Every structure is written in structure tokens, then in C-alpha cells.
Amino acid sequence: ISGDGAMRGTDNYIERMKQRSKDVMVRREAAAKSW
């Protein structure tokens, strides 16, 4: 069970990292358009 929880935690971490990088890309595009 602890192993499964660790796997789920890793999945959540990866999803969070993906979302964060996506947000950064969106912000960069918005900044580029504002120039």
C-alpha cells in the first residue's frame, strides 16, 4: 500500500511539474505578445 501511495505521489508530482511548465510557456507567450 505504501508503495502504491508513493507511485501516486510521484504521478501527482509529475502532473504538477507538467502543469507548471505549461503555465510558464503560456506566460512566455503572453509576454512575447505584449512586446
Written account of the structure:
It contains 1 helix and no strands. The longest helix is centred in the middle third of the chain and has 33 residues, at 2-34. The protein has one domain. Helices cover 94% and strands 0% of the residues. The chain is rod-shaped and about 50 Å long. It starts with a helix and ends with a helix. The chain has one helix at residues 2-34. With 35 residues, it is an all-alpha fold. The mean pLDDT is 84.
Tell the overall outline. rod-shaped
Structural class: mainly alpha
Reading the helices and strands in chain order gives H
Strand content: under 5%
For the CA atoms, what is the radius of gyration?
Answer: 15 Å
User: What is the domain total for the residues?
Assistant: 1
Structure annotation, total helices: 1
Terminal Cα span: 51 Å
Mean pLDDT across residues? 84
Number of strands: 0
The percent range for helix content is over 70%
Strand count, sense and closure of the main sheet? none
Q: Which spans have pLDDT < 50 for at least 5 consecutive residues? A: none
Topology:
Blueprint: H1 2-34
Gist?
This protein is mainly α. The protein has one helix and no strands.
Label this structure with key terms.
mainly alpha; 1 helix; 35 residues
